[in-house]
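Lab notebook page, bench 4
Experiment: in silico fold of construct C2
Operator: M.H.
Input chain length: 135 residues
Purpose: comparison with the prior construct
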Amino acid sequence: MLMTRRIRFLRSQFIRIQNEARRRAGRQGGEICGLIVRNGYFLELIQLRNNTKRGGGFSFYFREVRSIQQMANLYDHEIVGTFHSHPQGIARPGRSDLYNAVDDSVMLIYDVLGRSARLWHVKGRRAKKLQFSLL
């Protein structure tokens, strides 16, 4: 899977996600979320709307995910994971993050307070930290 390759994100997408996470952190339902798509060269961060209105959580709108899946299939890309922010917590997956993750996927978490991001490989409801770089 993904773990055997160098994991790279576009710097411009990564900075946009960081800025949006900071901007939304103080609002109700302030987490951002999205999908991570492998295009063959790097991982893309595609932000989606957060369907959860309460703070401390995120969920996707089914139609948005389905639309991204169709586009990924059309271009021979693959959804390999998710990303979200933790407005008031460290960049480590919580119990619900692990429970709701697709098995053998990646999860990028951005810690708004600490201004840091960590990438995790989730398998068997356990998370292993991965290294990544920015292009």
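Observations: The domain at 2-134 is CATH 3.40.140.10 (Cytidine Deaminase; domain 2). The longest strand covers residues 78-86.
Next step: discuss at group meeting.
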